[in-house]
Amino acid sequence: MASGYDASSISILEGLEAVRLRPGMYIGSVGTRGLNHLIYEIADNAVDEHLAGFCSNISVTLNADGTATVKDNGRGIPVGIHPKAGIPAVEVVFTVLHAGGKFTDNVYKISGGLHGVGASVVNALSVWLEVEIHQNGKVYKQRYERGKTITKLTECGSCAKKDTGTKVTFLPDPEIFEKTVFKADLIKSRLHETAYLNPGLTLEFHDLRKSEPEDLIFHEDDGIKAYVRDINHGKESVTDTVYFKKKQDNIEVEVAFQYVNEFEENILGFCNNIYTQEGGSHITGFKQKLTMIVNQYARDLGILKEKDGNFTGVDVRNGLTAIVAVKHPDPRFEGQTKTKLDNPDAGVIVSSITGDELQLYFDRNLDSLKSVIACAEKSAKIRHAEEKAKTNMLSKPKFSIDSNGKLANCESKNASECEVFIVEGDSAGGSAKTARNRKTQAILPIRGKILNVEKASIDKVLANAEIKTMINSFGCGFLEGYGNDFDISKLRYNKIIIMTDADVDGAHIDTLLLTFFYRFMPDLINDGHVYIATPPLYRAELKKKPKDGSDPVTYLFDDKALDNYRKDHAESTFALQRYKGLGEMDPEQLWETTLNPETRLLKQIEIEDAKMASDITSMLMGTDVAPRREFIYNHADEAQIDA
Ligand code: TTJ
Q1: Is 48 a catalytic residue?
Q2: Does the CB atom of residue 60 touch ligand 1 within 6 A?
Q3: SS3 of residue 496 by DSSP
Q4: For residue 234, is it within any domain?
Q5: Whether 179 and 93 share a structural domain
Q6: Cα 634–Cα 641–Cα 445 angle in degrees, nearest 5
Q7: 68-122 pLDDT per residue, tens
Q8: Which ligand 1 atom is nearest residue 118's CA?
Q9: Catalytic position from the list 505, 523, 584, 615
Q10: In a domain, 318, yes or no
């Protein structure tokens, strides 16, 4: 009996229909990124309960049946009848769009805003979802399917009075998502990040999908200070980790930073626990004040002479690792991926607090101040040298598209139909050149490992042959400020397809290439232009031609496909070839399996994949050989499952 429903509930159902019709509008994508988002969406509600002061433990479990469970020890979503809706409040939370926020009492909420679209969206995009609430010594349950209420909220047992919390289990809908397998690595790093940002909160991760279950616990008593320490692990420190937290006009500012002996900067920004990938006012405020203060001290100490120009912001941030986390009662996000903090007052207050705190710190720690200034001086020196190198190189006609010998370009000049394949190895490159559709497909062979851009200085990067060839070929420039500014409208290919062997070396080259794109042309990835080709692992050929005239050859893209093929065909009826690399395929096979848009399998790269690649690259550069080996092995395995 649907006794609780009245006219207003009709619009409720329509609301969730809209989510299923245009899921991308609510969760960004229907790829892996959107899929993982479902978990964050639910977990953010529990983090809000922590921020309100009532929850100390959150667990995320990836179950063997493809469902995910998020559980907390908060007060439990209210089960009483909602006065306006006439149904239990928990049912409103899961069936009314944007209903998440109305119940919570915490000013810096994550969920239910622009980023947290709410639990109802997850419900709408799940085959089924069940919520279980422990409250007042009783256990309540409710079930929904594809956003619609299936059972009324029922009391189904009792528990200790102090035992309170919310548990949500859901199965993502394969009608909506391209892939429904959660990516453990991304979820783990997100949980760890949440632990750094919320000292006092324990986050558990359980992966029950493998034969050997994985259980992890994230808890960081030292908060963002520990985050900076862990990012800098294995690097030579130049200063202590500096930390401050202050509140002004209801805006809270928390900063941790440390200088290390490296030629790069790494500043992460957060607002209300949300990672602001595109930066924004809080980051700008911090950078401006830091630049100002370091220049001031450098002049006061006579290290910068009257004739010297100021240190640039980049100089001052040379070797800096920093976390800037703000809490804002009414955050606004803008930018391509809505991850840029827009509120000007956040910038003003970060800048003001940073100014006061830096002055306090540097006045008491002269040695640290001198070390920071030394980092800036080093950068300024290199900057001057690089400026020279750059003008030298860019003025040479060599840096032009015509002299790009390796690229076998396509005939079409219409970028929307053009593709370029970056192919590992000269022999595979040769086959690909013969096999391709010359009109729309360009081939760019690269040899061996490409330069690790994470470590190299910019003039080295610009001098690297493989990288120059790529920049020249794509036509859209790269980073700002090096004489060839990035301009996506000049991109000459709609698809940039990385094509490497399905082995450890191939995976490594993929990682280095993604790192390069992530660092130098991130919008190529943001706008969905980057892909990885997945060549087949096996070729099976029936010994007798099928009577129905069908093709005796089948290409198998992974081991599961091979297992299935073996089930359908007796062992003696076919011959099996295992491809160890692209080089083993003749041009015809390469066309059929990997180049032909009708039959090939492409994996579109999302920015998280590339960020992960960049993180992996940083990690692989460390000096610890054993974990590095282990990592390459694990990664190679994953690549095969994905194919
Ligand atoms: C709201 O204000 C009254 C007391 O309970 C507050 C509340 O809703 N708390 C709450 C919600 N705790 N945990 C949740 C929650 C947890 C999960 C896993 C999923 C969802 C949608 C909410």
Answers
A1: no
A2: no
A3: strand
A4: yes
A5: yes
A6: 85
A7: 999 999 999 999 999 988 999 999 999 998 754 444 556 777 665 545 568 999 9
A8: 21
A9: 505
A10: yes
